[in-house]
Design a protein that fits this description.
mainly alpha; disordered N terminus
Length: 182
């Protein structure tokens, strides 16, 4: 009982930490969007630099945000799946909502190799846990289309292991620096 309570408290601490980080990041994202819409390149650059600095310092929420900008392009950053992937990986490993789904989409978009599709399956499974079945539907549908008849059991099992570690450890605190990759 005591161990379950401790795991619950640790998970809540991680979740509340992500909520506080998310509100700070949301403010930076809002400033960035405003600057882009007003064609204020200097202000947009300042906001983007602040966001990138936080991502490089290990903030998983900022990492997921930068990764999403690279994944889809945002008017300031061009779409670049290769640059998106390390940022999305840092966000997904931090349990940030939408990051696992976005990571799966980036993997599916760049490769149809068995190992990559298994990695995408892992993150679809994680996305279903973090974001819920409905939110993960797009990534799951893309994976089914890309995989065809390929057996992705190993990937889904890896996702289940990730979820189990996340639950028991109260979050995965893997130090990842997405900026080291490029």
């Amino acid at each position: 009982m005591k161990r379950t309570y401790l795991a619950f408290v640790m998970a809540m601490h991680v979740s509340l930490g992500n909520v506080a980080q998310a509100s700070d990041i949301s403010s930076i994202e809002a400033d960035l969007a405003s600057a882009i819409s007003q064609h204020d390149e200097r202000a947009a650059g300042v906001s983007l630099a602040e966001l990138r600095s936080r991502a490089c310092a290990g903030d998983p929420v900022a990492s997921a945000s930068i990764g999403r900008m690279y994944l889809f392009g945002n008017g300031l950053l061009s779409r670049d799946i290769g640059k998106a992937r390390p940022f999305l990986s840092a966000g997904a490993n931090g349990g940030v909502p939408r990051a696992a789904s976005d990571l799966a989409i980036s993997i599916i978009s760049s490769s149809a190799a068995q190992g990559d599709l298994e990695e995408a399956a892992k993150w679809v499974k994680v996305s279903q846990f973090i974001d819920g079945e409905v939110s993960a539907q797009s990534a799951a549908a893309l994976l089914r289309l890309a995989a065809g008849q390929t057996d992705l059991t190993a990937g889904f099992q890896a996702g289940a292991r990730w979820i189990q570690l996340f639950r028991t450890a109260g979050g995965l605190n893997e130090e990842q620096n997405p900026c080291a990759a490029g």
